[in-house]
Amino acid sequence: MKFDFCVGNPPYQEQIANDEDSNSSLSKQLFPLFVQGAIEMGAKHVALITPSRWFVADAQDKSFVKLREFIKSNNHIKALHNFRDAKEVFPNTEIAGGVSYFLYDAQYTGKVKFVGSKKTEYRNLFEEGLDIIISDGDYYSILSKVQHYGSFKSLMDLATGRNAFGVVGKKSELEKTTKTKPFTGSVEVFCAYEEKRYIDRSLIKKNVEIIDKWKIFTSKGNGGAGILTEGKKVAILGKSFVGQPNSICTDSLIPIGCFDSETEAINLQKYMTTKFLRFMVGILKSSQNIYQVVYRFVPVLDFTNESDIDWDKSISEIDKQIYAKFGLSDDEVQLIESLVKEME
């Protein structure tokens, strides 16, 4: 059986962990199966409403990556309507990352009509060198300038993945493995809510080369920080802080950097506070989770005293230096300033 048209709003996900000891956010994504199924069954035209987070995110079951790969190899998308604020479509429902619907035409090849709340533009669905979909052309313009400036190195390479040191931050686990006061052979452990505890160094088996270096710690989840939404300023990231040598963190935090000097760590912490960096993170952040991958588009700068950035300036002045460094236009600077709020 074949269909000429397939239109709908398929179920988005199925919760597969509900008990208190499980990760309540763990779920199986269902809508990618419907998208792929509708196209594979030979429908000439497909229009489905889905969460927008599949454009850039990486679901735990890898379904978003697989969906992007499938769409890229079956690139007959004619139009993509994106609503960054899902409440424009579903007023009583909270959907992180917004919602969208696409129009698939099996006979069409060419530029995609991207429709946002403020403008419409025609661009490639996947820009050159990217495996994600950037629905806003202004975002891509900024990203392109950053990536083509000199030799781009990603801050993601200085960040460490989930549970960097193998220390679980759950209170019941911390009480088993850590103490509240330092002892001989102990390492300081940064926990959620800026709590500090201490663990025997011999228990740390992962990323031991970072322990005695300077670095920063930042939260891996911050629902209050928000995501990029038109008309609303958000923080994107929570507060980060410097970690001195002989320190690690629980799985509630992510370490970034592995420096010999305190100066470099302090300057990285300042960089984390800039609107520029948080905007670049925001391009990939589609939920409250802040994993290593969201730093993919953030350029590594020189954090030493020899840097072309004067790190002794105020954060707003540092932002201005960075905008100038990458040649951002007045409109691009205004876009960032309008979307990202100052850190408290």
How is this structure best described in words?
This protein folds into two domains: 5-135, Vaccinia Virus protein VP39 (Rossmann fold), CATH 3.40.50; 155-339, no CATH class. 24% of the residues lie in helices and 20% in strands. The longest helix is centred in the last third of the chain and has 12 residues, at 262-273. The chain is an alpha+beta fold. It has a six-stranded mixed beta sheet with strand order 1-4-6-5-7-8, with helices on one face. A three-stranded mixed beta sheet has the order 10-9-13, with no helix packed on it. It has a three-stranded antiparallel beta sheet with strand order 12-11-14. It is built from nine helices and 14 strands. Mean pLDDT is 92; it is low at 19-24. β9 (186-190) and β10 (196-200) form a beta hairpin. Residues 1-90 form the Type II methyltransferase M.TaqI-like domain. It comes from uncultured prokaryote. Keywords: Plasmid.
